[in-house]
Structure formats: C-alpha cells, structure tokens
Design brief:
Layout: H1 3-23, H2 27-40, H3 45-57, H4 61-74, H5 80-89, H6 94-113, H7 117-130, H8 135-148, H9 151-164, H10 169-186, H11 189-196, H12 218-316, H13 320-328, H14 339-365, H15 369-382, H16 387-399, H17 403-416, H18 421-430
Helix pairs in contact: 1-2, 1-3, 2-3, 3-4, 4-5, 4-12, 6-7, 7-8, 8-9, 8-10, 9-10, 10-11, 12-13, 13-14, 13-15, 14-15, 15-16, 16-17, 17-18
Length: 432
C-alpha cells in the first residue's frame, strides 16, 4: 500500500471515530478525531463538513463557515457544504446574531479578568438565554459561579454544558471538583445533595419538640408571678429607663454618622460607576470598529482561499493559463495553511513562468501580438522578476505601433536588470 492510500485509510478511520462520537454527542472528542483525519487527508470533505457542523452546533459559526468554504473549494460539486452555506445565507440575521454573541462573550471575559464577576455573570446569562448551545458561555458562567460561591448555579451551568457536549472534559472535571470540595469542606452528604439535586425540605423536619413542664403548686405559681412583677417595675424605674435613654441617643448619633458616610460613599461610587460605564462604552465602540475590520478581512481571506483553490484545480487539470490568473489574484498574507500556495509558487518560479513565456513566443512568431502579450503578462504576474518577458512585451508594443509603451518596457529592463543579457538588446531598441 503506497503512502497516499495509507494516509487516506487512516483519515477515514479517524472520520468514522469522529462520526460515532458525534452521534453520541461527545463533540469535543469528535472534533479532535476529525482534526486528525484532516491532518492525514486535507481533501476529506466528509470530515471537514462534519467538523463544520460541530463548530456550528457549539456556537463557533465563523470556524464552521471556514471549514465549509474550504470543503466547497476542494469539491465544488455534489458537496453537502453547499447546502449548509445556503442554509446560513437564507438566515440573514444569523451571522450578525452570533457575531454579537461572540462580542458579548469577549466583553464578559474581559470583565471577569478585571475582577468584575457580577457584571460578567449578567452578560453571560443573557448570552446563554439567546444562544443556548454556545458552549464556551456555559463553561465560563459555571467557572464564575464557582468563583463567587454559587455552587448550585455553577453545577447547573456545567450540566447545561454537558447536555451540549457529553464528553466535555472541563465540565466533567469541574463537577468532580465541586463534589469533592463540598464533601471535604462540609462533610455533610445531605448538604451536598441539596446543592446537586435541590428539592423542598419537609416543614416538620425543623420542628423542635419541647420537654414536658413540671407541675407546681398553685400558690407557688402566684407568688412567683407577683415577685417578678415587683422586680420588673423597680428595674424599669431606677435602672433600665435611664440606661436605655442614653443607649438610644448614642445609637441615633451613630446612625446619623453612618448615613452621612454612606451618602458620601454612594456619591463617590456613582461617580466611579459613571466613569467605568464611559470606559466600557469606549471599549465597546472600539470592539465594534475592530469587528467591522475583521469582517472585511474575513471576506478578503475567503476570496484568497477561493482563488488559491481554483488555481490548484486548474493546475491539476493542466490549464496553466487559468492557474496563473487565479494564483496572481491570491494574497499569501491571508492564507494560513500555505502548503498549496508554496507548491504553486515553486512551480511558477521554476518552470511555470518560462512555459508561459514560450507560449507567448509562439504567438509572437505567428504575428498575434495581443495573444503573445497576454502570456507575457501572465508570466510576469506569477514571476515579477522577469526581464525577458518584460522585454518581449515591449517588442509586442513596438510591432503594434505603440512606440511610447514599448520604450517604457525597454527602460524598465535597462534600469531594473542592467546586468541581464536582454538589457543590451533593450538598449539597442531604445537607440542607446
């Protein structure tokens, strides 16, 4: 078995494992296996489409779109990715909705890192209510609830995460930590059960049954009551009232001071909150601006990927002219995986540009100067440091009667490539 077939076999094996785990809703482990599948065979469109569906289910819609666009470029026909992309396009507000959710999640993350856990929790609650399968929001919300001691709510958030991804290791580990912490810190299984499975307690569980009273003689009871009344009246008259009056006065003064201090603190807090709100609004405006730039960048990145895939498809079919046209429109700075780009660049730098120049020579000899110039331009676009093609393009202009443009081509050869052999030929054409 050759290497290519073996890689395809291994890729399919990882895909089958990922498919089985996906059906079991063990999405994180399924995604790991599908990524391994693509490492062995980048053209496994079934694995790429399934990985995109997992990302889509987890709320990572931008990653899902990237996988489906790549899949469609690798297999333009009979590809489920086309149907997935059309489904997204039929819901015009979907991408914006997920984009806002991602922005809010990043804001909540920044708030939590800045120590403002309560505001972060409120933000995450809104996200999880509007995007119930956004896994990262459920996980962060559970962690923040743990941080502030809301263990019941934390447990519920991690349970929600496990409903989305049954095998999520972070949620499983945090639930185990919650159980261990509560067991060790409180040592009370009943309390632990309340946190994990809250339920109403019986009202009679807290009733304290009093001990029976001892019987007394009637005259003893009456005498005790009279003595108690006399002592009480004396205490109120001579001891309790003056002391209580002084205590009330001190308490009143203390409350006045506390209220004044609270008003002062509240005024400072309001001012600080206003400043914080203004800073957060500035941050939101900045993030919205960055998001707009990112969206524009994503469009350019998608176009570059499409051009590169079209160039590879044309190259594989032997259509060097189309391959050169698409390759020239590809921006390498926007390509993450440069494997295919480097392969095409190596070909055009070594043999491709020469082959395009020779095709131009053939039409030049036949007197078809427009066609010849088309191939010379292609040769220059894929290999700019190309004095021969530039010189021959100048000859085409000369033969077509455009002496001005011909001289511009000859001058470019003379100035940029003075040591090349065609520089002397260009000088003769210029009359130097």
């Amino acid at each position: 078995m050759d290497i290519a077939r073996r890689c395809a076999y291994i890729s399919n094996s990882y895909y089958n494992i990922g498919l089985k785990l996906t059906r079991e809703y063990n999405l994180s482990e399924a995604a790991d296996n599908l990524k391994k599948s693509l490492q062995f065979n980048k053209r496994n469109t079934d694995a790429r489409n399934l990985l995109g569906l997992i990302y889509y289910h987890l709320g990572e819609i931008s990653d899902a779109l990237v996988q489906w666009v790549l899949s469609l470029n690798l297999q333009p026909y009979d590809n489920d990715a086309d149907r997935y992309l059309n489904e997204v396009q039929r819901q015009p507000g979907l991408i914006d909705s997920y984009g806002q959710a991602i922005t809010k999640f990043n804001q909540a993350l920044a708030l939590s890192q800045g120590g403002t856990d309560d505001l972060a929790i409120l933000q995450l609650i809104k996200i999880t209510e509007s995007h119930k399968t956004y896994l990262r929001a459920h996980l962060l919300l559970g962690l923040l609830y743990m941080e502030v001691g809301e263990y019941r709510k934390s447990y519920r958030s991690f349970q929600n995460a496990l409903r989305i991804d049954h095998g999520n290791t972070l949620a499983i580990r945090c639930i185990d930590e919650l159980k261990t912490y509560l067991r060790e810190s409180q040592g009370n299984k009943k309390t632990l059960k309340k946190v994990i499975h809250p339920e109403k307690e019986h009202e009679d569980s807290d009733i304290i049954i009093p001990e029976p009273l001892k019987e007394h003689q009637a005259w003893q009871t009456i005498g005790n009551i009279l003595i108690g009344l006399l002592i009480g009246i004396a205490s109120v008259a001579f001891i309790y009232l003056p002391v209580k009056e002084a205590e009330i006065s001190r308490e009143y003064n203390k409350q006045v001071i506390n209220v004044s201090q609270q008003l002062s603190d509240a005024s400072k807090t309001i001012k600080q909150k206003d400043e914080e709100i203004q800073k957060k609004q500035d941050k939101i405006d900045s993030l919205n601006s960055e998001l707009g730039e990112i969206n524009g960048l994503n469009d350019s990145k998608r176009l570059s990927l499409q051009n590169l895939m079209e160039a590879m498809r044309a190259y594989d079919s032997g259509n060097i002219e189309s391959a050169a046209e698409y390759f020239a429109e590809t921006d390498p700075e926007l390509i993450d995986d440069k494997t295919y780009y480097d392969q095409l660049k190596t070909y055009f730098d070594d043999d491709g540009y020469v082959a395009l120049t020779h095709k131009g020579d053939k039409f030049y000899e036949e007197g078809d100067y427009q066609k010849a110039m088309y191939y010379y331009d292609l040769s220059i676009s894929v290999h700019p440091a190309n004095p021969v093609a530039i010189y021959k393009k100048g000859l085409c202009y000369f033969q077509m009667g455009d002496r001005k443009k011909a001289n511009e081509m000859f001058t470019e050869v003379i100035e940029k490539y003075p040591d090349h052999q065609v520089a002397e030929m260009a000088k003769r054409e210029r009359g130097f």
